[in-house]
Specification:
It contains eight helices and 15 strands. It is of the alpha/beta class. A six-stranded mixed beta sheet has the order 12-11-10-13-14-15, with helices on one face. The protein has a five-stranded antiparallel beta sheet with strand order 8-3-4-5-9. The longest helix is centred in the C-terminal third of the chain and has 13 residues.
Length: about 290
């Protein structure tokens, strides 16, 4: 275990019913391959709230005290001697992962999100200091260089922080779905993930159709880049699109019937669900 540490201010919850309160936590001094970051902004993701309230206890029980936060943007203050990609003063970001075993097949392919020994930014075993990892609701974080991302200086940093979770959650399937063959895409929207996906797909040049239960969201969807907006409760509108989509991204976290969307897929079309843990499956539909 790493023995040299410093104190950092943070906000933590002591139990599932406690409010966040100011505290101090231990951070390690950077080792050879570490980057120390002064945290300027950290987004608030609903998974932070689930973890604080121990609402995911059936598959990932919360260890208290918990310091949540995994949409981190800040400024590099110190780097280890072997770090080559960053220097003090650089803008940098950290997402939901801070380490993996580095040896499994997925980790070697830079797919650490599938590593069985992935270390999350908070509430995961901390192999350096013992205990658990602490997240971005703090003034500083130290992370291995491989898990640090560069941030362009022309971005609004506060607005960019959610890209570290809601952004990548939808960008990854958009890149796959908006292939040269798959040019007709649909989104069943939720506020956070859905609006990100619409913007990405529009930027990628796809024909974007947004499905929503709320007619009042139509103008916002069009403003974000949608070509069409369909009210999913209107059976006639849904029938018009049957069998016509190459790719559907379902970003609704509430319980709902996905069969209505599967029926909209064309031959070899794909439907991917993102958002709530219970919905993290991908479906392949072929005629």
């Amino acid at each position: 275990m790493h023995s040299t540490t410093f104190n950092a201010k943070a906000y933590s919850a002591a139990s599932a019913t406690s409010p966040l309160a100011s505290t101090k936590i231990k951070r390690r001094d950077p080792t050879d391959r570490d980057v120390q970051i002064e945290i300027l902004f950290c987004g608030i993701c609903h998974s932070d709230l689930h973890s604080v309230r121990n609402e995911w206890s059936e598959f990932m029980a919360t260890n208290y005290p918990i310091v949540p936060g995994h949409e981190i943007i800040g400024r590099v203050t110190k780097v280890g001697s072997a770090v080559t990609k960053y220097k003090p003063g650089d803008l940098a970001a950290v997402g939901c992962m801070v380490d993996s075993d580095g040896t499994c097949p997925d980790a070697k392919r830079a797919l650490e999100q599938f590593c069985p020994n992935m270390i999350l930014t908070f509430n995961s075993p901390d192999k350096h200091l013992g205990g658990v990892t602490y997240g971005g609701y703090s003034e500083s974080i130290v992370v291995q260089e491989h898990f640090v991302l560069r941030v362009p200086s022309n971005l609004n940093l506060a607005a960019a922080a959610p890209l570290l979770c809601a952004g990548i959650t939808t960008y990854s399937p958009c890149i796959i779905g908006a292939s040269p063959r798959a040019r007709r895409l649909a989104w069943s929207v939720s506020a956070g993930l859905g609006h990100m996906a619409v913007k990405f797909a529009h930027a990628l040049g796809a024909h974007v159709v947004v499905f929503t239960t709320s007619p009042g969201k139509k103008e916002d969807a069009l403003r974000l880049g949608a070509d069409e907006v369909v009210v999913s409760r209107n059976s006639d509108e849904m029938k018009k699109h049957a069998g016509s989509f190459d790719f559907i991204l379902d970003a609704v976290s509430a319980d709902h019937d996905i069969n209505a969307y599967i029926n909209l897929l064309g031959v070899d079309g794909n439907l991917t669900l993102v958002g709530a843990p219970r919905s993290r499956w991908a479906f392949r539909h072929s005629a």
